[in-house]
Amino acid sequence: MRIQHWQDAASLLLGVWLVFSPFALGFAGAAAWITVVLGAAVILLAVEGFVIPSYLEEWGEVLIGLALVVAPWTVGYEPASATVSSVVSGILVIVFAAWELMTDRDVVAWWHDRWHHTAG
Question: Tens-of-pLDDT digits for all 120 residues of the chain?
């Protein structure tokens, strides 16, 4: 297991925060469960990035980040701290995933080959 991108380690730490944030911030119910499940998903995808690096886990993190951003208003997170934690964590997960996608040589090469080739 080797860290190829620091963004995976940062996402892993965000996932750990999300799993423990309901206890640290003192919220419960559906908001707590959703936060823990989405945090566990971030952890799993970050670890997958260590074990089998591919661009697919980054797209999964983008989707989870979007869910974290939207969840407070769809579920109705009660304490404001839960909303802030979910939204900020979701934005950071999206930023780290997008950053990794934009700096990964394989993805950049694929993008260049796919969209910038000349007609032969």
Answer: 555 778 889 999 999 999 999 999 989 999 999 999 999 999 999 998 888 777 788 889 999 999 999 999 998 888 899 999 999 999 999 999 998 888 865 555 554 555 666 555
Record the tokens describing residue 55, joined without a space. Answer: 């661009």
CA-based nearest residue to 53, from 11, 90, 112:
11
Report the sign of the C-alpha dihedral through residues 80, 76, 18, 45, in that order: negative
Token pair 């579920």 in the structure block, residue:
75
Cβ-Cβ contacts under 8 Å for 75 (sequence gap 6 or more)? 30, 31, 34
Task: Please tell me the distance from the alpha carbon of residue 46 to that of residue 26, in angstroms, as a whole number.
Answer: 26
Whether this prediction's pTM lies above 0.85 is answered by no
Q: Which residue has the tokens 């939207």?
A: 70
Q: Does the CA dihedral 42-38-64-14 come out positive or negative? A: negative
